[in-house]
């Protein structure tokens, strides 16, 4: 039964994701610029870019099909729904019983399929190349992400993200070896899935190295705005997954309404620290060749599997 508090917390989480996702991207861009000793862009630059794109006309290729037009809306909807089932402020989420960790990975995979199909729909060389690379990354990253989520579910005996958070919050504070391996694997997966260095460079338009940007070359106007907004939502979703699994303290319990208000500044601090660490990792890494990406993601998969084996052997 959906309670009023649960409905409010669910709507608040979705609205927070839609509003804060571009801000998180802007914060990461600022930290990158500071670490490079450059003049940082304004923190609200992403909002200005989205506002500009939404007010521009969308230009479509002559042979674009309905799939090309619908893909931005489907991708944006998948990312919004993914953010809605991740407990960021409270564990009292009506969507949680209907969507566990496996469904979350499925939503991310569905968005990937549509953005790749849309890139190939026009028939350009760069779009097809980007789609093939995107599917390669997804083919390797999604099983690794599942292994990370299963490592957490073994401790909590549930694949529901809200149950995982509830269990981890009320356990004694300790370092679990299995979660340490899973944390390293999740960091590597997040870098690959969000087109960050060392797998991809979000600031480049060099044809032979770009992955994510190659998928968006034919989009403009509101369609491009939705795709860029969805990319920010994906970064926000992965950040919140990491917070929920590895740093769940501060997320409100289902029966504590007042704690919901306190969880908002705590989440802001966590995201700020996470964004700064992401920029630091990018600045201390070099862009690897595309042929080294399978090795990178295979290592992440093996670390996640080792985490599961450690749990079976040590029970921690």
SSE diagram, text form:
Elements: H1 4-35, H2 45-54, H3 66-85, H4 101-121, H5 125-156, H6 161-170, H7 177-193, H8 212-215, H9 221-246, H10 258-283, H11 293-314
Helix pairs in contact: 1-3, 1-9, 1-10, 2-9, 3-4, 3-9, 4-5, 5-6, 5-7, 5-11, 7-9, 7-11
Explain what you see.
- It is a single chain.
- The chain is built from eleven helices and no strands.
- The protein is mainly alpha-helical.
- Helix 3 (66-85) runs antiparallel to helix 4 (101-121), helix 4 (101-121) packs antiparallel against helix 5 (125-156) and helix 5 (125-156) packs parallel to helix 11 (293-314).
- The longest helix has 32 residues, at 4-35.
- The mean pLDDT is 87.
Low-confidence blocks of residues: none
Strand element count = 0
Helical residues, percent: 55-70%
Could you give the order of the helices and strands?
HHHHHHHHHHH
Q: What shape does the CA trace take?
A: globular
Number of helices in the DSSP assignment:
11
Please give the radius of gyration in angstroms. Answer: 19 Å
Task: Characterize the largest beta sheet: strand count, sense, and whether it forms a barrel.
Answer: none
Structure class: mainly alpha
Strand content: under 5%
Q: What separation lies between the terminal Cα atoms? A: 34 Å
The whole-number mean of residue pLDDT values reads 87
Briefly characterize the structure.
This protein has 316 residues and is an all-alpha fold. It has helices at 4-35, 45-54, 66-85, 101-121, 125-156, 161-170, 177-193, 212-215, 221-246, 258-283, 293-314. The longest helix is centred in the N-terminal third of the chain and has 32 residues, at 4-35.
